[in-house]
Amino acid sequence: VVLPTGEVFDDLRKLKKDNTGYDLKNLFVGAEGTLGIVTAAVLKLFPKPKGREVAFAGLSSPQAALEFFGRAEELAGNSLTAFELIGRTPLEFALKHIPGLTRPLQGDLPWYLLIEVSSGRSAEDAKNLIEQVLTAGLDTGLVGDAVIAASLAQAAAFWKLRDELSDAQKPEGGSIKHDISVPVASIPAFIEQGAQVAEKVSKGARVVCFGHMGDGNLHYNISQPVGADKEAYLALYPVMNKAVHDLARSFGGSISAEHGIGQLKRDELIATAPPVAIDLMRRVKAAFDPAGIMNPGKVI
Amino acid sequence: VVLPTGEVFDDLRKLKKDNTGYDLKNLFVGAEGTLGIVTAAVLKLFPKPKGREVAFAGLSSPQAALEFFGRAEELAGNSLTAFELIGRTPLEFALKHIPGLTRPLQGDLPWYLLIEVSSGRSAEDAKNLIEQVLTAGLDTGLVGDAVIAASLAQAAAFWKLRDELSDAQKPEGGSIKHDISVPVASIPAFIEQGAQVAEKVSKGARVVCFGHMGDGNLHYNISQPVGADKEAYLALYPVMNKAVHDLARSFGGSISAEHGIGQLKRDELIATAPPVAIDLMRRVKAAFDPAGIMNPGKVI
Q1: A with B: how many residue pairs have Cβ under 8 Å apart?
Q2: Do the chains contact at A184 and B16, CB–CB below 8 Å?
Q3: Residues A192/A66, Cβ–Cβ less than 8 Å
Q4: pTM attached to this predicted model
């Protein structure tokens, strides 16, 4: 890390265990350059998995997805490398607007999962694992229907569908975006109450909910009502943000799971985080960068 | 965390992803109470493994143990829950001094491993995994001999042997202890050079080397030469510490992998850590605890 003084703090160590003084490294990680500029990092590499299987499943509710997640984690452990929750609305947007996508499952289920299992042992092990996981889901009735990608091409197609969900929202008009996380167990309640919150702010607004279920992290975007005026809808941005973020906070959640604070969420962080936390962050900032020259105006 | 002001910093969140400002939590973790007193924590629980297998293996060298570790990790991944390296000297000390222990392997190999595999899938899976791991070790010649615990009692006996290594040193006279870590790949070179370093400080001193190989963390203790005067040997404590710690540092290692700094290693940390790091730690300390009332005299 290059510090405001021009000095270099070098912590490029390859240790798994080190208890020598304060953990400065994690203070710089995620500080968005406001304490110093990270110019190098040590990475741990893992071998490429020997087997990888991708499946698409349909379910009746986020609650079923949560229970199924617990079962899948129990069966596959760290081999469960993706568990992506996808609502019906983003799925339909993608199938409508992105050329070349195919509907993975027929039937009329409101929630979907893209599941990936990776095995360091063998291709056969990955295949057995994903079959065990899906069988457990189907046998318990948590999963309504499921399909395992029959080829690398189909696996790629499932992932393409997931990757296009964000772009597929654009033709549907204005979108008010959120990058929230809540405890994994609170995902169903957040989704249920989130729909009410969004409806209250904008009648007919369409919740586009998808995300990394295993991380408790949802890309919770709200598309404008069909036929609404885009500008008028986007004028609701701060009101919708506040409503959704208040809901996330009520679950002990985060208003920035992945993307950071920057300047967009700075005032909100300062207004809503515990004053003690903001005070400590400001003391760190003042101690490291008393002249305030590092990425000024960001984070705090 | 209760702060020096009496205020409480509450970060009891159950989130897997959160990017809202500075990571204060990891600053308090490992600060040994010098920034505030941690009074509560959130823990993530994992289900008890469905299967667990313990094995004891003999090898010709730490280099063979390192190569075998890579193979075992590749095969068992996160199911590899222990990979404890044990030198011949601590093994013999334990068999000599601790009542009720049995030699796990005959033959005359200089290095040993206690290996544990845990499976969240099934008991059979754990059994298959440990057999695969040991077969890979034996087939490649990295492992000279190995035995899988045939019962829970035998598994407990293997662990008891490991757990008693520290106590078994006491009847052998004075011991100069180190809690070092190095990059996992540097373990063999550290052990080879460590023996020379110890011999140079005290001719005939006996290296008692054991530890968590997968963590790069060795309990690297040096017992006095046979028949030496204990007090005279222990007078070498600072010289031996410096020699071993210098060696660990030369590999980018840590002089405190597990146990922290306290007051014992404070002066050494301040003298040997990069001045920039010490300066940053002192700025954090001054920012959080300007009156210096939290665990004074410790860490920095």
Answers
A1: 206
A2: yes
A3: no
A4: 0.93
